[in-house]
Specification:
- This protein is α+β, with helices and mostly antiparallel strands and about 150 residues long.
- The chain folds into 2 domains: about 10-95, no CATH class; about 110-140, no CATH class.
- Helices cover about 35% and strands about 20% of the residues.
- It contains 3 helices and 7 strands.
- It has helices at about 15-45, 45-55, 75-80; strands at about 60, 65-70, 90, 110, 120, 120-125, 135-140.
- The strands form 3 sheets. Strands 2-1-3 form a 3-stranded antiparallel beta sheet. It has a two-stranded antiparallel ribbon with strand order 4-5.
- A hairpin with a 6-residue loop joins strand 6 (about 120-125) and strand 7.
- The longest helix is centred in the first third of the chain and has 31 residues, at about 15-45.
């Protein structure tokens, strides 16, 4: 259930408008997921060509073409996400060795924090083999490197 405080609603931001936004977001998510899956299929369809040209490199494939190549995965992210916000990326020749798990998360905000509300999340940190974990409550998500 979505709880929205009345003080955050303006006449232009009504619950019906919110419903339209959420519906649009769901539609957009479906488009991105289908596009990403097509990019993944395209990558594997052109893998032999990629092996000949880019073995050991990170590549981003979008709409049937290579749109970025680099030695490090973070180096291609800006290019990979520039066009539609998604692209399939992998390290050519090392696909079975690479494990990347991405999650999309939504979370509540702490309105009591000033000057602006902060997001609040509980996070479970796991080691690579996922044999040990630690739960942290009230974590603040940032874009800082870990």
């Amino acid at each position: 259930m979505l709880a929205v405080s009345r003080r955050h609603l303006s006449p232009l931001f009504t619950l019906s408008r919110l419903w339209c936004i959420l519906t649009l977001m769901s539609h957009e998510r479906d488009i991105v997921e289908k596009g990403f899956e097509q990019d993944r299929l395209d990558y594997w369809a052109m893998r032999d060509e990629l092996l000949a040209k880019y073995t050991g490199k990170w590549v981003a494939v979008h709409k049937g073409r290579v749109i970025a190549v680099a030695d490090e995965p973070l180096s291609i992210m800006e290019q990979a996400l520039a066009e539609d916000g998604y692209a399939y990326t992998n390290k050519v020749g090392d696909e079975d060795k690479i494990v990347i798990r991405q999650r999309r998360v939504s979370f509540p905000y702490d309105d009591s924090y000033s000057p602006t509300p902060l997001p609040r999340v509980a996070a479970v940190l796991r080691n690579f083999s996922q044999t040990k974990s630690k739960t942290i409550t009230d974590a603040i998500p940032t874009q800082a490197p870990m």
